[in-house]
Structures are given as structure tokens and as C-alpha cells.
Amino acid sequence: MYAMKYMNKQKCIERDEVRNVFRELQIMRGLDHPFLVNLWYSFQDEEDMFMVVDLLLGGDLRYHLQQNVHFTEGAVKLYICELALALEYLQRFHIIHRDIKPDNILLDEHAPEVFQVYVEGGPGYSYPVDWWSLGITAYELLRGWRPYEIHSATPIDEILNMFKVERVHYSSTWCKGMVALLKKLLTKDPESRLSSLGDVQSAPYLADMNWDAVFEKALTPGFVPSKGRLNCDPTFELEEMILESRPLHKKKKRLAKNRSKDGTKDSCPLNGHLQQCLETVRKEFIIFNREKLRRQQGQTSQLLDTEGRAGSQTQGKLQDGCNNNILGHACSRGCSS
């Protein structure tokens, strides 16, 4: 099963969000990782753009925090490793997430250098902001609240001063290794902060982790959501359905009705600019099929393997008149290295 996200074309045009949707599609079709929500298909119809992605029925971490779930150090330790692998993968593609929070199955807190950007002359920020957020995520999962109390209305100057004068308080019940790791992730100076997979893997607290097993999802998580209940707030989902002006389950009748109106006097044609924009969206929309892509990649790989074997056999025949003892030895060494 998959999850499907759909976006109304006309609304996206009116809100000037088409470029963002296209950019999201462009990024997601190039990513494939076990700890990311991967894009599988994208398609469109007259009204909407559709994205089909991995379905995660366990709910997000924010929901479980609100349900007073107590995350053990072992569970958080595994989350840190999984998120570190995901961040390292994104970093390889020159992507800064910048919105890691429990709501996104990850955490919400900006690094100090992000707020410095709003101050005249402040430096920019890079990948270390995501590793700061990883530290904030782990802290909140363990303690139930964040180390800094920052709200959307908190002035920038107050936030910057908070980072200067306030110290992060770590629970005395946490093991020393976890505290040491969090301190390195929550270092305010981005130059001194742990900010790569290698940095995190070198932490003594994670020395016993089997990273291959983490990547393969072979380790048993410390917290497993209940399969017998809905791991989200049903009232929120119901509100979305009620407020949806063009619900998906009524699309077939709606499109049929619109098509029948097109040939009548009562039809109200869209204004020229909007119609032109809709046509541009239709032409430039990226259609994607990951299953088809994987099949093509598999066929290409098989073809290259076949050509490689054929080339090796031809090369062997050409070498028959040479010093086969020397060439054969050199080839075997080269192939095994």
C-alpha cells in the first residue's frame, strides 16, 4: 500500500506554488533511501497533480509524544543512527533538510546560526543545522520537551540572547554516553558540532552499533506503534475531509459534469491567463514511475554485465599469443582488488 498526496492545479497557480511542487518532484524522484519517504509515482489529471509515496502507518513522533509515550535511551539511540544515515544521504546530494521535527517523523528546532542570518552581517548556514536538529529531536524524545523554549512569536534578538546565556540541562538519569553525544550535537558553534555520519559513528556511545543492520532495518526498535489503533488524530483527518472543497471521491462525477458543460451556453470559460498557466502545468509536469525505472536499470545492468563478459572473452583470445603467465596473473590481481 502507498500514501497519495494530491494538489489542485488552480489553487497552486493562484498561490504561486507550482514551482515549489515541481521542485519537490524533481528532488524526490532522484532520492531512494530506507529512512526517507520515497516517491513511487507521479501523475496528473485535469484538476490535480498526484504524488504516490511510501505509506507509514505508525504515525509521526509528535503524535506519540502527545500520547505521553516514554522513549527509552535504546529507542532514541536507534533513531539517532537511522536519522544520521538519512542526513548523510541527503548531504551527498547537497540537500539541507532544515525542517527536522517530530511532526515530520523527525523534529522542530532551528540551529543558532539560522537565526544569525536574520541579523545584518550574520553568516549563512549549511549542513550542520540538520545535525543540530537531530540533537534537539533526540533530547525532546528522551525528556518530553525541548532544551530551548522558542515560539514563532519569540523575537530574534531574544532567541540569540537565549543561546548565549542559557545552558542545556541534561537529566541525571541519562547515561554519560548519551549526554556526551547530545552535547556534541548541540554545540552552538557549527564548526565544532558533529555534522557528518563519520562524526556520529566515531562517538563512543555508538561504538557498539551495527550500522549495516541499522541500514537494513534488521534491528528491533525500542518502540513499536500499535497496529490495532489509528496512530493519528482522527478529528484532524475528519476536518480536512469536511473542509476539502473538491474531494477526491467526487472527482469522477465532477469532471463528467464539467465536460458536459463545456459544450453548452452556460459554460464559464476560465480567463485566458489561468487557462494558459494550466496548459503550461500540464506540459511541464514530471510523470514518474519508480518501478519502471528500476526495471530499466536492472535491464541496463544485465546488458552491461553481458557486454563485460563478452569483452573479457575477446580480450582473453587476443592474449593467446602473448606471455599468458604474466598477463593472466596481472588480470587476476586486478579483478580481485
Automatic annotation (TrEMBL):
CC cofactor: Mg(2+)
Gene3D superfamilies linked to this entry: Phosphorylase Kinase, domain 1, Transferase(Phosphotransferase) domain 1
GO molecular-function terms, A-Z: ATP binding; G protein-coupled receptor binding; G protein-coupled receptor kinase activity; metal ion binding
Record domain Protein kinase: where: 1-206
Gene Ontology biological-process entries: G protein-coupled receptor signaling pathway; regulation of signal transduction
Cited SUPFAM superfamilies: Protein kinase-like (PK-like)
Reactions mediated catalytically: L-threonyl-[protein] + ATP = O-phospho-L-threonyl-[protein] + ADP + H(+); L-seryl-[protein] + ATP = O-phospho-L-seryl-[protein] + ADP + H(+)
Keywords annotated in UniProt: ATP-binding, Kinase, Magnesium, Metal-binding, Nucleotide-binding, Serine/threonine-protein kinase, Transferase
InterPro entries: Kinase-like_dom_sf, Prot_kinase_dom, Ser/Thr_kinase_AS
Domain of life: Eukaryota
Region ranges (Disordered): 297-319
EC number: 2.7.11.1
Cross-referenced PROSITE patterns: PROTEIN_KINASE_DOM (PS50011), PROTEIN_KINASE_ST (PS00108)
Pfam family name, one: Pkinase
PANTHER family in UniProt: G PROTEIN-COUPLED RECEPTOR KINASE/RIBOSOMAL PROTEIN S6 KINASE, SERINE_THREONINE KINASE 32B
Name under which the protein is recorded: non-specific serine/threonine protein kinase
Lineage: Eukaryota, Metazoa, Chordata, Craniata, Vertebrata
